[in-house]
Amino acid sequence: MSRLRNEPGHPGLAGLEEAVFRRIAAMPQVSAGSQLRLGAVAAFGAVLLGVASNGVTSPVEASVTLSPFGPSNPLAPSTLLAGPR
After folding, report:
1. Which one of 33, 47, 58, 79 is least enclosed by Cβ atoms within 10 Å?
2. Burial annotation 22-50 (CB, 10 A radius, 16+ → b, else e)
């Protein structure tokens, strides 16, 4: 790092910042109204997707209650390694 600090800067970096700002300024600007409209459509789509994904599934009741320290945990490593008995 100290060696790089003592070396002169690359000559191609001299006008880089100005070139970047010129390209940003040349980009087409989007009006505030269209940004607001696009944001409203995106929010409406997100709400619609959330309602649709929640409304499609039916509630399912768990048949087995899992407890991490209980002896009847069917997903415990000892149960999985021992196999059915």
Report:
1. 58
2. eeeeeeeeeeeeeeeeeeeeeeeeeeeee
